[in-house]
Every structure is written in C-alpha cells, then in structure tokens.
Amino acid sequence: MAFIELKGLTREYQDGAFARRVLDAVDLSIAAGEFAAITGRSGSGKSTLLNIIGGLDTHYTGEITVDGVNLRAMGDGKLSRFRNHTCGYIFQGFNLLEHLTCLQNVLAPAAFSGERGGMEARAREVLRRVGLEDRMNQRPRTLSGGERQRTAIARALLMKPRILLCDEPTGNLDYGTADQILELFQDLNRNEDITFLIVTHEDRVAKLGKRVLRLREGKLMEEAPPQ
C-alpha cells in the first residue's frame, strides 16, 4: 500500500480572466521510506506539489491520501496537526528567525503544537544529530550557510516527522557543504526511515533519489536518475 498517494490531482491559478493549470490530473504513489527527487523548469509546479502534499495548499481538485488518510477528510485541527507532526519542511532560504538562537529556532514547531514536556531535550538531541551541539546558543547571523541549513534540518526533525519535504535545500550552499547536507539526508533516510521528497534542479541531487519525477506542462513523468 502506498504511503503517499495522489489521484487526479489538479491545481489551477487564476491569472486575470484565465486559469493557468500547473498540475494536471497528476497520479503518484510513494512508498514509506522512499527517497524521490522532483525536477522541472522554474514555474512548473514543483513547489506547489510539495505544498499540497504537506497540507499547506488545499485549493486543488483530486485526492491525496497519506498513510491511508484522505487529507480532504481532515478538519482544520487535524490538518494543522498533520502539518506539524507528519511533515517537516526544509527550504532553500533556511527561513530561520534571526532574533532567536539555534536552539530557540529548533523549538519553534513545539510552540505551534502546544507541546512542552521534553521538547528542549529533544531539540538539543536533534542539534547534536546534525553536528551543531556547540552552536546551540548562537544566532543565525553568526553561522555559515551549511550551519544555517543544519539548523533548519534540526527544526524540521523536532516533531519526529515521517516525511521531509525539501524545496531546493542545497541551492544556497557551496558544493562541499551541499554534499555534507546530502549525506545527512541519505543517513536520515536509511537509518530513520524518513520519506524524502526533494525539489531540485541539480543533477547531483536528483541522482541520489531512487526515483526521479519530472513535471512538464502539468504532467508528472518518471525518469531514470541522471548518471
């Protein structure tokens, strides 16, 4: 049984009097623990697809189920919990709060969930997991790009998500730092059974995926990983 399943997923944006269809009856099945890359030209709908899977965008037609639960059947409260607990997000721009320390940034999802007990210990654990045990009390402006992205990864891991949705996560990193982040992703995928969906335009990122999915003119096609 598929862990993530999309059936006939369609998303349109209104552009004046016209509707622009960025996703056109997309079907997709992702097994638990898969590592899949999503490629395509700028504006092809890659980020939109991630946002729909993560429950951030509900303006679509078709059906999406995660672990057998239809996202349409979730009320606001359940959908909020799904976004907070099931999915973690990692972005190209890191999206850290500059006035908070690394530890406080990582703890941010707990504030939205209302959970308190044991969260600081968990935040310290995931910061150690990504190699930032000596950076916990620093603010993002004092960190390198790779350390900022590691902080963002730790934040995404805080609530023990089953899915990590990554939108160009190495786009702002130099080659060597990007390789370190990708090694961390592979380790998390192998050892913690986290399902990865990574939007990328880089072949070296896409080739890490067991599957490569390309969006073109609203359609999703499967391709062989680049060599």
SSE diagram, text form:
Blueprint: E1 4-15, E2 18-30, E3 35-40, H1 46-53, E4 61-66, E5 69-70, H2 76-86, E6 87-91, H3 102-113, H4 119-129, H5 145-157, E7 163-167, H6 175-192, E8 195-199, H7 203-206, E9 211-216, E10 219-223
Parallel strand pairs: 3-8, 3-9, 6-7, 7-8
Antiparallel strand pairs: 1-2, 1-4, 4-5, 9-10
Shape: globular
In sequence order, what are the helices and strands, one letter per element?
EEEHEEHEHHHEHEHEE
User: What would you call the structural class?
Assistant: alpha/beta
Percentage of residues in helical conformation: 25-40%
Cα Rg = 17 Å
- β-strand percent reads 25-35%
Give the CA-CA distance, first to last residue: 30 Å
User: What is the count of β-strands?
Assistant: 10
Mean pLDDT: 91
Textual characterization of the structure:
The chain has 7 helices and 10 strands. The protein has 227 residues and is α/β, with parallel strands linked by helices. The strands form 2 sheets. Strands 6-7-8-3-9-10 form a 6-stranded mixed sheet, with helices on both faces. Helix 3 (102-113) packs parallel to helix 5 (145-157). It is globular and about 50 Å long.
